[in-house]
Specification:
six-stranded antiparallel beta sheet, alpha+beta, SH3 type barrels
Length: 105
Amino acid sequence: MCIPGSAMTPAATRPLHQLADGSRATVARVVSASPEIDAIALRRLGELGFLPGEPVQLLRRGPGGREPLAVLVGETMFALRLLEAQCIEVEGVEPPAPGGVSRAR
């Protein structure tokens, strides 16, 4: 059922950079969030493992709470620029575990 005036995409999706530190989610899709991101950059994110269905966790942010963002996709940690994190849409967000951010192994 479609609610008039609602978007066709699920309301539960959001860009990765909007997650709280320590939150877990699942990659829904990778989209171009800016004219600065081209097909090559999007392909690179896919090659790194940011594919639909992959588990992802925003571990922490750089100095001042901005860049880079330390992100765990699958079992691999990456440092992403804010512009890259804005291109990764996630769903099924789980808030951080009590007691702080879990660390990568």
